[in-house]
Each structure stands twice: as C-alpha cells, then as structure tokens.
Specification:
The complex is a heterodimer of chains A (about 575) and B (about 180).
Chain A: H1 2-19, H2 23-48, H3 55-80, H4 85-103, H5 120-142, H6 147-174, H7 186-199, E1 223-228, H8 234-244, E2 249-253, E3 266-270, H9 277-289, E4 296-299, H10 302-309, H11 311-328, E5 331-335, H12 341-349, E6 353-356, H13 360-372, H14 376-386, H15 399-416, H16 420-442, H17 445-448, H18 454-457, H19 469-476, H20 498-510, H21 513-525, H22 534-553, H23 558-580
Parallel strand pairs in A: 1-5, 1-6, 2-3, 2-4, 4-5
Chain B: H1 5-30, H2 39-62, E1 72-75, H3 78-86, E2 91-95, E3 106-110, E4 116-129, H4 135-140, H5 146-155, E5 164-175
Parallel strand pairs in B: 1-3
Antiparallel strand pairs in B: 2-5, 3-4, 4-5
The chains are: A mainly alpha (about 575), B alpha+beta (about 180).
C-alpha cells in the first residue's frame, strides 16, 4: 500500500509539473510530493530490512518533518502567494522551528509508524497540519475569490490530519494494533491539492522580451486607474505607450487582440469563459507581475470577469490587485466599459484615479465637423467604409490613415476650385484639420481625462474660420440662385469659335469663375485653350460633369448645392448640344 | 405490447440500485479488516463512504446529477419555453441591468404561470454592445434575425448600438421539477 502511495504521489507530481503554470506553487508541490515519496521509501526500506542502519531512522524523521512543514507552506503560498508577507512569515517561522523540533531526541517509544507522539517533534508535526487546516478553513469562509479552492485545501489537510495525528491518537487510545501509516493520506492530500492547483492555473501568457531595462512610466506607480470610456480605446493607447517605454505590461482581455504587439514587454492573456475567470486572472497577475517590480497590469475586460464570476469575486480581485499595487509598486488599469452602475459605484469606493474619457470616433467627428461643416459626416462615413470598420470601432490608431484620406480627398477638391484664393483657403483648412487630428491623436489619456475634449472645446461650426463651399459660392456667385435666369440656348451664329462659345457658357452658368474653371478643365484635357474641336467640347462636357459635380457635393447648404447641380447639368447639356452640332 | 419508457427507466434504476446494494455487501465482507482501524477513523471514513453511496443512490433514483441549489429563476414566454426545451445550446439576451446568472450557476426556467419547466446551467456569460451581438447569438436567443434583435433592443429596451446587453449561453441541466 505504501509503495502504491509512492507511485501515486510521484504521478501527481509529474501531472502538476506538466500542467501547472504556477512556478512557486509548483515548486512547493513537487517538494511536498518528494518529501512524502522519500519518507514512504525510507519507511519501506526500514520495514523490509534493506535500510537497517539507525541513521535511516533519523532520515525518516527529517523527511516526515519536511513533508509536514511543506503542507502549510503550500496552503500559505496558495492563499497569499510567496511574496506576500503573511504567508512568507508563517512559512519561515515554521521552517525555523523544524531543526529545533528535530534536534530534540524522541522518546524511547518512538517508532517510524507512530510519529505523532506527545513530544516536541510530534507536537511540531501536528501544529504544522493544524495551522494548514485552519488557514484553509479561513480561506474557505472569508474569501469569495479563493473560497471554492479553499474547500479542496480543507479536504487535503483533513486527510493528512485524519490519517496522521487522529489515527495515531486512536491507536494509542484503543490499543488496536498498528495497521497502517500516516503517509497513507498523502495521495489523497496531494490529489486534492493538485485539483486546487489546476483549477487556479494561471492563464497562458508570455512576455515577448525577458530582457530587463530601465523605463520611465507615464502613469503613477502603486496606483489604480479606472478608464471610464464607452469602449476600451484609450486603454490601447496607454498599453502601447507603456510598452514603448519598456515597462512590463500584462493585458488581460476576453477577446484575443486583433494585432498583438510584437515588441516591448507586453504580454496578453485571454480570459476564458468559465466561472473561475476571476481566480485565474488573479493567479495570472500574481504569477507574472509579483516578480516584475513596478510592472503594469491592464484588465481590459473587468465586465467580462464580473459576468463570468460574479461581482463579489471581482471586487475581491480588485482589492487584491490594489494591495499588490501598493506592495510591489505596480500600476493597475481597469476599463469600466460595460459595467453596471452599481458596479461602478463599488469600484469608486476603492478611490482609484477615475479617468472619464471620450470616444475617439466622436471627437474625430467633432474636429471634422468644426472645420468641414456638414461635409464631415459623409467624409467620415466614406473613410470608415473604405477601411472596413464602423464608427463604433474607429480608434486612435486610425487617425493617421484618416489624415491621409482627407489629404487625398480635400487635395483633389482644392485642385478643382478655379478661384486661387478659394483653393488656398481650402488647403489651409485641410492643414488645420490634419494638425488638429494629429494633435488630438497625440494627446495622452491623462491629458484627455482633464476634460479638454475637442467636442467640448470646439464650437460646432466656426463661420469666421470655415471655408465651406457655401461661402465660396456665395462670395463668387454672380447673383443669388433664385435670381439667375435659366440658361437659354445660344444662337448658333453668335460666337465665332467653339472656345468662345464654351467660355460664354461657363461664365453664363457659373459666373466669373466660369472662365477659370474652363481653363482648368481644358488643361486636364491636354487641349489648346483657344482651339477646340466638337469632340473636345463633348469631352469637356463629360469632364465638367464629374469635376463640378464633386464641388457641388461639397456644398453644405441644400439650396446652393441644388442650384449648382442644376447649373452643372444645364451647362453639360448645352455643351453636349454644342459638341453634337454638325 | 409496448412497454412505456417510464417503466423501462424504472427497471434500469432499480437494477442499478440492486448492483449498488450488492457492492455494499461485498464491501462489508471483503474489507472486514477495515473495521479494526479504530473508532474515530471508522466513523470519519465510514461516514464519508456511506454518504457517497447514498449520494450515488440519489443520483440513480433522480436520474440527474446534482447541480446544487439554483441561483435564481428566469421567466420565459410560452414560445420561448418551447424553444428552450427544443434547443440544446440556447442563449438568453437581456439588458445589462437585468439579473442574469454567472457562469457555472444553475437556474430554474419558469413559464409565465410560474411552473418550472427546465433547469439550465449557464456555461458562458458575456457583456456585449448591441452592435457586437452576432446573428447566431440573436437566433439562439429566440430572435428571428439580427435586425429583429436590434429592433427590440432599440424600441423595448431603449438601447442604441453602443448600449450593453448580457448574453448568457445555457446548457440543459435536467428537467424541471
């Protein structure tokens, strides 16, 4: 039976080594298994007469004692982590007592089979198990986060107590013959400890770069930050900046990142859809960041953890992280997106730095609207459609692409404006838009959190700064739209050349700017400004329909826009007639 | 003569109880040395073993694994109840502020008259933006289409595409009592 127990102990140790991601706990567990295996092996050797030297009895006592002191060490490490003072102090204290207890010579009645006797050594062994048992009970009763696993720790320590001191006491009390050994409980205890260990397995994660280097953080150490944004967007910027500084950052999120950063010391862990999400999140943080002094942990999906594990466990997770932040000078960042109102209130009670942040898509829309008026929305919609995203998913990382898009669009538009002054003003506005976008994209979350949002700072429209198509056409139109007579077909004999006729039509339809527009259109047709064929006029009509149509679309007032469209259509029809004449 | 399913089930359950009883008696006979362990270990170990045997008997008699106390109950309309009974991987979508179970919790599914018709185990719980809910989730939650879900979210729950809903995926955890 003892040999079978040894095999089971060794198999459980191998199982934990293969499957567990806890470094410290795994080490303690393997040491515990090894101590039980060693004590069982020595006992079998002594009983079978193979190990007959008296020194083996001392070795057996030593192995027993080590196994017993490792039981509370395991429970403490599970409950508090190896770096936390409560568990570490208790383990060290018990470890220091070990040589003292072992040095006291046992009574003459001491045998390998009955280790738990009323002597310092026996009391020490019992004390170790009782401390572990009581700690497990406290954990079970008081910790919503670790309570479920506390049950398994209770079961394991109880198995050792039952097959150890209780059994020895019973044998002594009733005078029954000795039918077994205290170490028979070890397979049961190690089995349930392994269950707890694997339930609390940290999430798979790896830091791409293990190289340590100096870094300067942009957010305070030893603090908790809550990013109150509708969707977790600024948190991405924050992670990127911290990673670029070389700071170790652990990001926990429910969904896998679309493009995990390949550089820096950023590790992503995916929160699995299970009830133990909070527990495994905590174990992941403890395992990865307790040893990386001053690292940052970013919990992007606190709402996902609350949904999976319940809010009571999530609150304890936050408290544990808060404590770790103070202890290890870490920084924790939580995203409050998708939290209930009551949950937000609970979160505020820990008095974190609460940053209320806007949605970048709203701010981008506000900037565009400020400079481009009603043309902003169509432009933004066209941009998001061309990039396969929606306005909801527009993030700060899209701003450079948006700048390039606007540069292309507005640049094209400015080149078609005949009035040089208008074109310059349009280009100026383009520069302003790009500058504002760049400025906004470069602002850190901390700065934005002060409340200086573009949507608040900028008025909806600025008539004095805005160069809109409305202004352009109102300033340059020959007369109000309603006063302009409908274009009449000119007599065939009036102009001497096709160029003159085209120029007259342009001026008639578009006012003084018409002649300039005609020249621009002709330059794009590679034709001589003064010599036109009828086919050129027909091509001119097509070209004008496209280019002037774009300008008409950019007008932000319905009336002038419709008027210009009508003018353009009329001009093109007339040009087609002229081009089709024999 | 056709034997009813209920009768067959009772026969099977009774047979399993007989096998369990047989194992118990064999255990008494073969492990007689166990009783020399002593009073306290016998009480503790024997109690645990007897409890396990009784629990096994309870599982055999009830025909379902114990899931613990239900965490709460959800009320479904008649057509939703029928769909839930018929669907293996049903989903439930509710506004964020509603009380929904966490992962691993069992709930009583009741119809509008308060009669429990199923026990459901929540296997996954998510909080999603209305715009992020997939058509598959909407369909499994009983909506005819994604558009129908969004219409309900907008008109009945007052949620825009950036509003948040809870999406719970269920698995059957036994028939209702």
């Amino acid at each position: 039976m003892i040999a079978a127990g040894i095999v089971i102990d060794a198999w459980l140790a191998a199982l934990v080594v293969v499957h567990s991601r806890h470094r410290t706990l795994r080490l303690v567990y393997v040491a515990l298994s090894a101590a039980f295996v060693a004590s069982g092996g020595i006992l079998v050797g002594i009983e079978s007469g193979v190990l007959s030297h008296p020194a083996w009895l001392d070795a057996l006592r030593g192995a027993y004692a080590i196994a017993h002191v490792l039981v509370p060490a395991f429970v403490f490490a599970f409950a508090y982590g190896k770096d936390l003072p409560r568990g570490r102090s208790a383990t060290i204290a018990l470890g220091l007592l070990l040589p003292i207890a072992a040095a006291v010579p046992p009574g003459a009645s001491w045998t390998a089979r009955l280790g738990y006797q009323l002597n310092p050594y026996g009391l020490y062994l019992v004390a170790c198990l009782v401390i572990a048992f009581l700690t497990a009970i406290i954990l079970w009763l008081r910790s919503p986060l670790l309570g479920a696993e506390g049950f398994w720790l209770i079961a394991g320590t109880f198995a050792l107590l039952d097959t150890g001191p209780l059994f020895a006491y019973q044998l002594g009390f009733t005078g029954f013959p000795d039918p077994g050994l205290s170490s028979l409980g070890s397979p049961v205890a190690l089995g349930v400890f392994a269950v707890a260990l694997l339930h609390a397995n940290p999430l798979p994660t790896a830091f791409p770069s293990r190289r340590k280097r100096a870094w300067i953080t942009s957010i305070a150490r030893g603090r908790i930050f809550v990013l109150d944004e509708r969707r977790p967007k600024y948190v991405e910027q924050l992670v990127r900046r911290e990673a670029e500084s070389g700071r170790p950052v652990l990001v926990l999120e429910r969904d896998r990142p679309a493009s995990p950063p390949g550089t820096g010391r950023v590790a992503h862990a995916r929160i699995e859809g299970a009830a133990r999400a909070a527990l495994r999140t905590w174990m992941t943080i403890r395992e990865n960041l307790a040893r990386k002094d001053g690292g940052a942990v970013v919990v992007k999906d606190l709402a996902a953890i609350a949904a999976l594990s319940g809010w009571s466990r999530t609150v304890e997770l936050v408290r544990q992280i808060e404590w770790s932040c103070n202890r290890f000078r870490m920084t924790a960042v939580f995203c409050a997106s998708r939290l209930k109102a009551s949950e937000r209130n609970d979160l505020r009670r820990s008095q974190p730095d609460w940053w209320v942040l806007p949605d970048p898509s709203d701010e981008v829309a506000a900037i565009l609207s400020h400079f481009l008026g009603s043309a902003a929305d169509p432009l933004l919609d066209e941009f998001v459609a061309s990039h396969g995203v929606s306005r909801h998913t527009l993030t700060l990382t899209h701003i450079p692409a948006l700048g390039a898009f606007l540069q292309r669009k507005l640049g094209d538009m400015a080149s078609t404006v005949a009035d040089p002054q208008g074109a310059e003003r349009l280009k100026g506005e383009l520069t302003n838009v790009l500058h504002s976008l760049e400025l906004f994209g470069g602002r850190a979350a901390a700065e934005i959190a002060t409340g200086r949002w573009p949507s608040r700072a900028l008025p909806k429209r600025s008539a004095t700064q805005l160069v809109t198509a409305r202004d352009y056409w109102q300033a340059n139109a020959p007369e109000p739209p309603t006063a302009i007579p409908a274009p009449a077909a000119r007599p065939a004999s009036a102009p001497a050349s096709l160029y003159d006729r085209a120029r007259s039509l342009f001026v008639e339809h578009l006012g003084p700017a018409g002649e300039s527009l005609l020249k621009i259109e002709l330059s794009t047709l590679d034709g001589s400004p003064r010599v036109l064929s009828r086919s050129d006029v027909a091509r001119l009509s097509d070209r004008a329909a496209v280019d002037l149509g774009i300008i008409a679309d950019a007008i932000d007032l319905d009336g002038p826009r419709e008027w210009l469209r009508e003018r353009v259509q009329s001009l093109c029809r007339t040009l087609q007639v002229v081009g089709g004449e024999p | 003569m056709r034997i009813s399913k209920r009768f067959v089930r009772e026969i099977v359950r009774s047979g399993l109880l007989v096998v369990l009883s047989l194992l118990l008696v064999l255990g008494f006979y073969l492990h007689s040395n166990f009783y020399s362990l002593g009073f306290a270990p016998l009480i503790l170990g024997g109690t645990v073993l007897t409890f396990l045997v009784i629990s096994a008997g309870r599982v055999i008699v009830s025909g379902r694994m114990p899931r613990g106390k239900p965490a709460g109950d959800l009320t479904f309309r008649q057509e939703e109840a029928q769909r839930l009974v018929a669907t293996q991987n049903a989903a439930f979508i509710a506004p964020l502020e509603s009380n929904v179970p966490c992962a691993g919790e069992t709930i009583r599914a009741e119809d509008e008259s308060g009669v429990e018709f199923a026990r459901l185990l929540a296997v996954d719980c998510q909080r999603k933006f209305v715009s992020d809910v997939t058509s598959d989730e909407a369909w499994r939650a009983g909506f005819s289409s994604l558009g129908a879900f969004r219409a309900v979210a907008r008109e009945e729950w007052g949620l825009d595409p950036d509003g948040t809903v809870s999406v719970v995926e269920f698995r059957h955890a036994g028939a209702g009592s």
